[in-house]
Amino acid sequence: MNQQFLVLSGAPFTLASYVVEGGSSKHFSKIKRLAFSQPKVLHALLQKFTNSMARYIQYQADSGAQAVQIFDSWATELSPVDFEEFSLPYLKQIVETVKKSHPELPLILYASGSGGLLERLTLTGVDVVSLDWTVDMAEGRRRLGPNVAVQGNVDPGVLFGSKEFITSRINDTVRKAGRGKHILNLGHGIVVGTPEENVAHFFEVAKGIRY
Fold this sequence. Notes:
Blueprint: E1 6-7, H1 12-21, H2 29-37, H3 39-62, E2 68-71, H4 80-86, H5 88-101, E3 107-110, H6 118-121, E4 128-130, H7 137-144, E5 149-154, H8 163-177, E6 182-186, H9 196-208
Parallel strand pairs: 1-2, 2-3, 3-4, 4-5, 5-6
Helix pairs in contact: 1-2, 1-3, 2-3, 3-5, 8-9
């Protein structure tokens, strides 16, 4: 079987945000208006996305996917109490449903700017929490606890620096992550215009790291 890695476009709240807002948004006023004035309508929409996503992940696993990353990019626009109502329960549903049929499938959760929600992200039951660069790796590791693996979290902007600088930041991240349960990665996607040779250097340094 060829190794595959599946990246999903978004978790239920993020998908609902795109639908209700009609695209990306600065203030997310439409989705929040719906959430706070007609919560039953939003919950119904979120449930539909949850059911569809769970089936989609199961299909991808049956088709050979060996890991799944779920993006909840806009969940961090919610306050903690609203995250617990409009995002967390649906993420938990997806994880529980998939784990029943595919218990060995690693599930990764990424939520940009998630520093205020880290402890709640572990409640979803995912295997790995992906951190962006706004969270110190050592602090994130401490807050997530020993049972959750972490992914990240080098700032993509670092790849505009010198090769020595890139190496230093990679080693700093690895050191703070400690031994085991860490997937070295950027804290988000590669920025347009990033020098290709610096991307190659990132991978070379990563491959050469030994504990």
